[in-house]
Amino acid sequence: MAMKIKVGDVEIGGGSPIVVQTMCNTHTSDIEASVAQCERLYKAGAQLIRLTVPSMSQVESLREIKARLRAKGIMTPLVADVHFSSEIAIAAAEVVEKVRINPGNFHKDHDKAKEQFAKLVEVCKANGTAVRIGLNHGSLGERITNLYGNTPLAMKEAVMEWLNMCVENDFFNVVVSLKASNTHVMVEAYRLLAEEMQSKGVVFPLHLGVTEAGNGDGGRIKSAVGISALLSEGIGSTIRVSLTEDPENEIPVARYLADRYDHRLYSSMVAIALEGKKAIATYRAPSRERLLMDFSCDFGKRLLDKELDEVELRGTYVDNGEEKVLDGSEYAEYLTDELMQAARRRFYRPEYIACPGCGRTMYNLEGTFEEVKRRTAHLKGMVIAVMGCIVNGPGEMADADWGYVGEGNGKVSIYKGKSPVLRHVPETEAIDRLLELIEKADA
């Protein structure tokens, strides 16, 4: 069992209930908008709320946001999301209850990073601040990838270096994450880390998430597949579902997962039959949403781990008060296709990598993503990324065939694989340019 840590008054790990968290997509410098969104997220059930802190001036914005929330009686712990500046992380640790740092970009010089991390730990100890060591598959750093490649093993090794630094600095108020958009990579990385921590005898609580999951049914199914596979094995103490939507929409999905794996909610599946490696599952689901989540959690892990090769969906679900039959329906086929895609067993449409957006995003990410999906829906099996900024964008979309990355100031970079092929493209032209490049490459 993971050790118990505290983020403000919220306990994570050590047998505590699974904690649900989310992240603002407002600009932290817009204090009014950030406070208003935090209030909505609190009312929706978020137990931790993260905000991006891309500059030192926004540490002061964060201080004001926290003061205004506390004045309203909202005591939800705040998390500062920091990339590319160890100095900002150290400053933010005096303000909020938790600081997220990314080992891949905390400081480009590893020896300097260790020195700066020791300073951060001292500030955290003095202020009772927790730390999330939050590694993303797309931002491993050159030193680690040269040693281990861009692999789940590399993710585990990178994080273990930092956990060893925590132990050396006698600092244990730490949560760890190893997120990826690829559900196979994400699940394997967490399993490797959980095993390694157990063998070392120091088990930090794990924050689970499928990063850049996208939106709509696909984003929900993909998130449920990755997160539920681990929670079902007892791996994970806190979760965030990353959707390219209003962050309020993430909470019900995460709440379902927490309730299910804390045994407060059970699947609506009423029967299952096995024919070799095919499952025939019958449901009596009270809603469309429950069917989607139940089905994803019941079979995502089994498909990921190749225990099953196929699932047939039968039974009924209720939609707008009307009972609908699943047997042989288009909706059953659609849900099965989406689940197979999320588990990376069969691709029936393009695979999309899209971040949820945050205060670093300088364009209409949600609208752009929907338009990209609409105009590329015919490109079956192609992997297309739509990213809000450069922090995780170029790295996290390393598996993508094509990528659309916001630069800010109304400009976009277009990537083919890992390489930018067009920079500073006006937003108004960027989707057209992307489609032209894809068509030319396929000609």
Residue share in helix: 40-55%
Total domain modules: 3
User: Which structural class do you get from the secondary structure elements?
Assistant: alpha/beta
For the terminal residues, how far apart are their CA atoms? Answer: 55 Å
Give a quick account of the main beta sheet: strands, pairing sense, barrel closure: 8 strands, parallel
Under CATH, the homologous superfamily of the largest domain reads Dihydropteroate synthase-like
- Across the major sheet, the strand order is 8-7-6-5-4-3-10-9
> What is the C-alpha radius of gyration, as a whole number of Å?
21 Å
**Beta fraction:** 15-25%
Total number of helices: 14
Describe this structure in words.
This protein is α/β, with parallel strands linked by helices and 443 residues long. The radius of gyration is 21 Å and the shape is globular. Helix 3 runs parallel beside helix 4. The protein has 3 domains: 251 residues, Dihydropteroate synthase-like (TIM Barrel); 74 residues, no CATH class; 92 residues, 2-Layer Sandwich (Sulfite Reductase Hemoprotein, domain 1). It has 14 helices and 19 strands.
Describe, in short, the structure shown.
The protein is α/β, with parallel strands linked by helices and 443 residues long. The protein has 14 helices and 19 strands. The mean pLDDT is 93.
